[in-house]
Amino acid sequence: MHLLTVFSHPLTDKYPSAVMDAFHQPFRQAGHSIDVLDLHREGFDPRFTVADHAHFWGGPVPDDVLEMHRRVEVADRLAFIYPVYWWGMPAMMKGWIDRVFTEGWAYQYGSGVDDRGKQPLYALLPSVPTTLIGIGGSKKHTYDRYGYREAMRTQIDVGVFAYCGIDDVESHLVYDVEGDHNAPHRQAGLRQVQVVAESFLSPDRIPVRAKEEHLRARHESV
Questions:
Q1: Sign of the CA dihedral with 13 first, then 17, 22, and 27 last
Q2: What's the pLDDT band for 188 if we cut at 50, 70, 90?
Q3: Are 113 and 59 in contact (CB under 8 A)?
Q4: DSSP 159
């Protein structure tokens, strides 16, 4: 099994890196290969450039985006590990998605650019099992009270991944990790993500159909 982990945090000696290491431990113990795409360390430019805009309208794929496509294409599992900023992904990771999940590779309308807005959408990515691990400073009660977790699932799990064909998406949050007084929460979070990883790589894992679950929940709430 080959795992691609997309990671976004500017420092390598902080808790998000420890979370990533804990998540990777079961993969390493099982002898699986891991490609760590550390967006800060690799200097990925998250800005949607003139070249990206040209590609959006039918031009060539920028070289750095093409490299990202190749790294995604060889992965058997995808993981995204990041601190939660304003109830979502950091700008660096969101910019990676903006640039990398391109039309003609991740999705397409009709037969191409000229059919955008006129023909149905076709998702192009295979449903590679994907897990999202967000690291939050707020308490679970806050996420539950305001519906932030469900909003993130709607926007990211369904609106990004399932939209492009990756409908086997599970998302997890590690809550309340900031400050010395929350050291026990951080230790519990490391154990949590190891359990997530063990389940995620298991051959008996049951796919999580994010879009189906989302629509069913909305229907049941009406």
A1: negative
A2: very high
A3: no
A4: I
Of 77, 65, 74, 72, the C-alpha closest to 26 is 77
Condensed to tens digits (0 to 9), the pLDDT of residues 16-69 reads: 999 999 999 999 999 999 999 999 999 999 999 999 999 999 999 999 999 999
- What would the pLDDT profile of 91-136 be if each residue is shown by its tens digit? 999 999 999 999 999 999 988 888 888 888 899 999 999 999 999 9
- Residue 180: CB partners within 8 Å, gap ≥ 6? none
Find all residues with CB under 8 Å of 91, minimum gap 6, and list them.
46, 85
- Calpha distance 136→86 (Å, rounded): 10
CA–CA distance, 45 with 42 (Å, rounded to integer): 9
The amino acid at residue 207 is P
- Is the pLDDT score of 222 beyond 70? no
- Please say whether the beta carbons of 161 and 167 come within 8 A: yes
Question: Are 54 and 103 spatial neighbours (Cβ–Cβ below 8 Å)?
Answer: no
Location of structure tokens 């690799």: 42
Which of 134, 164, 163, 162 lies closest to 148 in space, CA to CA?
A: 134
For residue 113, count other CB atoms closer than 10 A to its CB.
15
